[in-house]
Amino acid sequence: MYESPAEALRKYEAAGMRIGKVQVSSALRVDLTGPDRQKAIDALHVYDESTYLHQVVQRSHDGRLVSFRDLNDALATAPDAGACEWRVHFHVPLFWDGPGPLRSTREAILETFGVLRERPFTQHLEVETYTWDVLPPDLKVSSRTRSSGNCAGCNVSSEVLPGWPRRLRGYLALARISNSPTIVSNVLAGAALGAMTAGTTAEPGTLLALMAAMVAYYTAGMYLNDYLDFQIDCRERPERPCHRASCPEARHLPSPWAFSAWARCCCGRLVSSRSWVECC
pTM of whole model > 0.85? Predict the structure, then answer.
């Protein structure tokens, strides 16, 4: 928890290791050297919840590290006189850094982004959001306010994009387009298993039509899910794609029906084909 991201990245590079994805998250940081030491420790109690483990690593002035399995274990043990900082595995909004006795580790994020600008080793950044439901209420309100402008402070504002690119980006986010290749691979895996058991191979045209149909069904399901959950997502889960997709038409999407019709059309052409039966 205390290593320099830039130094860690240099070690990976020196070892010839490539980085495919960066998971971006910000943890709680507690300064134990200032006059607000006890106030900061007391403020941690609101983060002590039982849904997830929130490991704590204590750093002393001599560099020694002490680990606690969960936040409640750390709170039950008063930090020794040589302790200078606690870092708590609790995902807080990326833009947040106090104010108050508790801070965050967002400086490490900025340091990593600095390295990424100099040496763009990956384009895949994934923001950790799974602890949203257990955040203190005041942080949820702050996150909703910030997310209306820049996706909880962790992404480039879509308002910098002109009309149709902004809408296209929104619809692609709603479709979870990055998941579509897994649908294609599932079809290929099914075709391979069918060939192994039945001893026949599906025609390329059949496979392409089946891939198109399955991707269309999946995309329709994603659009329909967000269409039905739009109001509750706006209130309780503003980090969901439908709320942050920057396309006002999202709440009135015709897309589920269009994609479903396309999928049925593809399947309709396959049902009468013998190769369809063989593929199944």
Answer: no
> Chain-centre distance of CA 32, in angstroms?
31
**Whole-angstrom distance between the N-terminal and C-terminal Cα of the chain?**
50
CA distances to 50, 104, 113 from 109, in Å: 27, 10, 6
Instruction: Tell me the two tokens of residue 11.
Output: 């070690």
Give Cα 31 to chain centroid, integer Å.
Answer: 28
d(CA 182, CA 214) in angstroms, rounded, equals 11
Question: Domain boundaries in the chain?
Answer: 5-155, 163-279
- What secondary structure, in 3-state letters, does the chain show? CCCCHHHHHHHHHHCCCCCCCEEECEEEEEECCCCCHHHHHHHHHHHCCCCCCCCEEEEECCCCEEEECCHHHHHCCCCCCCEEEEEEEEEECCCCCCCCCEEECHHHHHHHHHHHHHCCCCCCEEECCCCHHHCCHHHHHHHHHHHHHHCCCCCCCHHHCCHHHHHHHHHHHHCCHHHHHHHHHHHHHHHHHHHHHHCCCCCHHHHHHHHHHHHHHHHHHHHHHHHHCHHHHHHHCCCCHHHHCCCHHHHHCCHHHHHHHHHHHHHHHHHCCHHHHHHC
Q: What is the pLDDT of residues 211-259, one digit of tens each?
A: 888 888 888 887 777 777 777 766 666 655 554 444 444 444 556 667 6
88: number of Cβ within 10 Å:
24
